[in-house]
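I have been asked to look over a protein record a colleague put together. This is what I was given:
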Amino acid sequence: MSVSDPLDVVRAFYDAVNRSDLDAVAALYHPQCIVEYVFTSDAAVYQGRDVVTRKWAAEFERYAGALAGGRRIDVDRVAGIETGWGWVRTDWSTAVTDAENALPQALESAGHSHFWLEDGLIRRHRTVWRIARRPAFSGPERPQTARQYPSQPVVGVGAVVFGDEGRVVLVKRRYEPLAGQWSLPGGALELGETLEAAVAREILEETGLVVSVGPVIEVFDRILVDEAGKTRYHFVLVDYLCAIAGGVLQPGSDVDDAVLADPADLETFRVVAKARDVIARAVRMKGDVA
């Protein structure tokens, strides 16, 4: 199925790059594309799909991804540009190693890219590199959203993270809501951050695990009111199916403990009914994918 939304095309492009899928990468470029400063250690401009495809083939052959799961690029943000429909900006960090082990350590950097799409294909692709790699998106604005008595709903992300033997990650909450209770890891979306990037960040912060973010399990809202009937919390929650790609399970920010639990033992942890339902749906989805 073809993809026409410019942001989705760019997401598909990075997914193909992280899989080193040359055919998929090539298929997303326009035949008359122009690519500027995109390739590792190559500050040159290339024109035409065939030429660009050969350059990506050389990139995949020479360099291997050095991020968790063998990925090359972590995308922090995919955003449209107001100057005109079809323009997309991405912010990212990257780490690669020489496939022949000629480099003593990984090449790490960060930057942003601009894409111009025409007829659902990348017509222009330009990259601006920075020397130091950043761990996560840190744009000029990162306001702390008021979670209690908010002026508008807060978007949150969560995950069913599968480990060995079909076990799932649970965290014991330190703060309200659900303080002292076991639940799925997750947190609030930050300004300028994609949902997928937020899931990966929250899981890393709360559990020490690097995850591969899969499909959406469910989207739902959670509204809690105080004794006067005033809305104290209002979350719109998006839960994702995830798999462990690296790291070590350990409690991090906002949690007192983190464990791997058998889905059959959730009653032992007194996990709330909604979280149990989400986990059950994730187990079925995982089985369908397998």
Remarks:
- The first strand starts at residue 29 and ends at 36.
- The longest helix spans residues 273-289.
